[in-house]
Structures are given as structure tokens and as C-alpha cells.
């Protein structure tokens, strides 16, 4: 049975005196991703990865090889990689939202939620930051990449069992925000970069996610929206678009849906980008990413 990393049994005890509603339609988001903290990737901190995981390709394989030591190794990472002083530094740069990737796995069960609580509490109380809870990995694998559960895994798609576990994680995350006492300070991103095309040359293009895969993502997101509504939680749901763009999904949701699209543009993926062209490309991509204008768009990467 999958462990939900303590989210299912954790009750948030955050305290906040002033809450500012973050409106994705009007707010300008100058944010950062707290990668390599609650989700490990070999490319983020090579020194730590080599010392802790050796030649493992992903966190799943690393944890499986560490066995009983995995909990201790990851807890030390959670304790040290992101601290309140990091939040102070980000605040000094006028950072508004923090996207915090979390993971869903059956090879490790630990205390991620308490670390998430501590940093979220500090960021909100001290600086009124907005927190995006990103469920970065889902059962079976969402994109075949090491950060999608494990390398080569695409088993989340068209998998009713995996979908059920995903909804349990979503419900736990919703409860986390509700118990915080200031749900308006959170956005929920229930999956990350869904890709079902095994042809990696199509990654980071509109062909990365098939129409069939996009239909499965749409079904999942509609289920997430239903869970949010049933829980009485007024939190936005962020949709990772699988590189298809806001306009592709826009007709599938009513204009009243409380959603925001997370668009990623990778300049290393077949783009003729260098120091001389990058600025113009960024401006062009920002304009193109708006889509049809029905829903707000956040350029998360």
C-alpha cells in the first residue's frame, strides 16, 4: 500500500494573523521552486546525490537501495536543505509564491509534512508568501523521468488504482490547507509535467502528451476540483499543461473554475537560445503562453 508521506495523518497547526488573498488573475507571481528539498533529483545537488545515492537514477531507486537508512538520510536532507534563513533571503528579493514539490511513494514513509508545515508557516507568517503545494510524483509514474516517480515509469495513465491513490493524496493536501487556518495562502498543483509519449525527442513539445493522455489528465483535474469543492476549500488548482498550452485545455473547463495553468518552457530542448537571443525568446514565449486568455497562466519554469 502506498505511503502518502504522513500527509494522510498530519494535522496542520499553523498560526497566522493577517491573510492576503492571492488572486492569480491579478497578482504578479515572482516565485521560486524549492527543488531538491522534499523531492530529490540527481541534477540539483550532485555532491549530496553522489554521497547519498551513488549511481541510482532516481529517488525511488535510491531509497530502495538505502533500505532502512532511507528515512534517516532524507530526514537529514529535509532538515538542512531549506531553512528559514533561505526564506529570509528569498523575501529580500521580493519573492511572492513558493512552489514546494512533494512526493508520493511506497518505498519510504517519513515526516515530510512537518517540514512543509514549518517552512510554510514561516513564509506566510513572516512574509505573507503564497505556497504552491506540488504533488510532484504520482503512483506508476507520470512522465517516465526520474522526477515523475522513477525512470521509465508511465504507469499512472489509464490506471484506476493509481488514480484512486492520487485522489487520496489530493484529499490529504486539501485537508492540510484547511487545517492551516489560511487556505487562501495555498494553491494545489496535483501533478507535474504529465507526459505519456515514450519518444523522448518529443519531450518539451506539444506532442509530449497525447490526446488520450490529456483526456486522462482532464478527468483527474475535474476530480480534484470536485474534491476541493466537496471539502469547502476555496483554493486554486494549478494545472501542469504537459506542454500543450492553456488554450488546449481551456474549452474543457467552465470559466468559473478556480484554476491556473503552469506552463514550462525549456530553452535547452531544441531551441536556438544563447545569451544573445534568450531575452527576446523569453518575451515572445511570455506573450504566446497567455493562450486564449480564459484562465490565468503561470510560467513555473
From TrEMBL:
E.C. no: 3.2.1.58
Gene Ontology molecular function, alphabetical: glucan exo-1,3-beta-glucosidase activity
Signal sequence annotation: 1-19
Catalytic activity annotation: Successive hydrolysis of beta-D-glucose units from the non-reducing ends of (1->3)-beta-D-glucans, releasing alpha-glucose
Subcellular location: Secreted
Enzyme class: hydrolase
Protein name: glucan 1,3-beta-glucosidase
Cellular component GO terms held in the UniProt record: cell surface; extracellular region
Main location: secreted
Family: Belongs to the glycosyl hydrolase 5 (cellulase A) family.
Organism: Passalora fulva (Tomato leaf mold)
Amino acid at each position: 500500500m502506498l505511503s502518502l508521506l504522513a500527509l494522510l495523518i498530519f494535522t496542520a497547526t499553523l498560526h497566522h494573523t493577517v491573510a492576503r488573498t492571492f488572486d492569480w488573475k491579478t497578482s504578479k507571481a515572482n516565485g521560486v521552486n524549492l527543488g531538491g528539498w522534499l523531492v530529490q533529483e540527481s541534477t540539483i545537488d550532485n555532491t549530496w546525490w553522489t554521497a547519498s545515492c551513488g549511481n541510482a537514477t532516481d529517488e525511488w531507486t535510491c531509497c530502495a537501495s538505502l533500505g532502512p537508512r532511507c528515512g534517516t538520510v532524507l530526514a537529514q536532507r529535509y532538515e538542512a536543505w531549506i531553512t528559514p534563513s533561505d526564506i529570509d533571503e528569498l523575501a529580500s528579493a521580493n519573492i511572492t509564491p513558493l512552489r514546494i514539490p512533494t512526493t508520493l511513494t511506497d518505498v519510504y514513509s517519513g515526516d515530510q509534512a512537518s517540514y512543509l508545515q514549518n517552512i510554510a508557516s514561516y513564509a506566510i507568517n513572516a512574509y505573507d508568501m503564497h505556497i504552491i503545494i506540488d504533488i510532484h510524483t504520482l503512483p506508476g509514474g507520470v512522465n517516465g523521468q526520474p522526477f515523475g516517480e522513477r525512470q521509465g515509469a508511465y504507469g499512472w495513465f489509464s490506471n484506476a488504482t493509481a488514480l484512486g491513490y492520487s485522489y487520496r493524496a489530493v484529499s490529504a493536501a486539501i485537508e492540510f490547507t484547511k487545517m492551516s487556518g489560511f487556505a487562501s495562502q495555498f494553491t494545489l498543483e496535483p501533478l507535474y509535467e504529465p507526459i505519456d509519449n515514450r519518444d523522448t525527442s518529443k519531450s518539451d513539445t506539444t506532442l509530449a502528451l497525447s490526446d488520450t493522455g490529456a483526456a486522462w489528465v482532464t478527468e483527474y483535474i475535474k476530480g480534484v476540483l470536485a474534491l476541493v469543492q466537496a471539502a469547502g476549500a476555496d483554493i486554486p488548482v494549478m494545472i501542469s499543461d504537459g506542454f500543450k498550452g492553456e488554450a488546449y485545455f481551456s474549452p474543457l473547463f467552465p470559466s468559473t473554475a478556480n484554476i491556473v495553468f503552469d506552463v514550462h518552457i525549456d530553452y535547452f530542448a531544441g531551441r536556438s537560445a544563447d545569451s544573445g537571443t534568450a531575452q527576446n525568446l523569453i518575451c515572445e514565449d511570455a506573450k504566446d503562453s497567455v493562450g486564449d486568455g480564459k484562465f490565468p497562466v503561470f510560467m513555473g519554469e
